[in-house]
Design brief:
The protein is α/β, with parallel strands linked by helices and about 190 residues long. An eight-stranded mixed β-sheet has the order 1-2-4-3-5-6-9-10, with helices on both faces. Strands 7-8 form a two-stranded antiparallel sheet. Helix 1 crosses helix 5. It is globular. The two termini are about 25 Å apart.
């Protein structure tokens, strides 16, 4: 495990193989960071499958989502110099950030995606994408999640997990679902 700084962005970069996944954390004003338990579980599963992982923290202060998308772009630039295949994974707020950089990636995973938050909105792309939705999400309704999925272009896939927004009790299912999708689409 290597702690790296990418243009003032603190990140954890684990190299395991040619493919890499960049993990976008949840909302920084709600405690979201690269050490989010869901991201840590996903990272562990990807590393077991020989997929490199970069997890980063958004710079402070909070910049309405627009600055956080810029942080993701800078982190992506760092990875593009080192990897040919890049998957982007975002959880909650991070899913909206991830959707805004997905055109520069090979695959995307959106966990509890939101239609919009702060100054950014979810953006579609033509790359393979997986929507993971919690059936009992208390922040984004199942109807909203399904609408985002329906409006997305192909190729796309949908997985419903019977849990709430935080995926408590379902971390292993979540991590394995993300890893399987990335491996199938790389």
């Amino acid at each position: 495990m290597a702690e790296v700084v990418i243009d003032s962005i603190k990140a954890t970069y684990n190299v395991r193989g040619e493919r890499v996944a960049m993990l976008c954390p949840p909302h920084p004003l709600m405690g979201g960071s690269r050490f989010d338990i869901r991201l840590e579980k996903i990272a562990s599963e990807l590393l077991r499958k020989n997929v490199s992982v970069l997890r980063f923290d958004y710079q402070q202060p909070f910049r309405s989502g627009i600055g956080e998308v810029e942080d993701a772009k800078k982190s992506l630039g760092y990875l593009k110099e080192r990897h040919d295949f890049i998957a982007v994974v975002g959880y909650s707020f991070g899913s909206v950030v991830a959707s805004n950089v997905s055109d520069y990636c090979n695959a995307a995973v959106y966990i509890s995606p939101l239609p919009s938050i702060n100054s950014i909105s979810f953006r579609d792309s033509t790359i393979p994408k997986l929507f993971i939705v919690a059936t009992k999400d208390q922040f984004v309704s199942l109807d909203e999640s399904l609408r985002l999925y329906e409006e997305a272009s192909h190729p796309k896939a949908l997985v419903r997990i019977d849990t709430d927004h935080f995926y408590f009790g379902k971390f292993d299912v979540l991590a394995k679902t993300v890893a399987e999708f990335i491996l199938q689409n790389s």
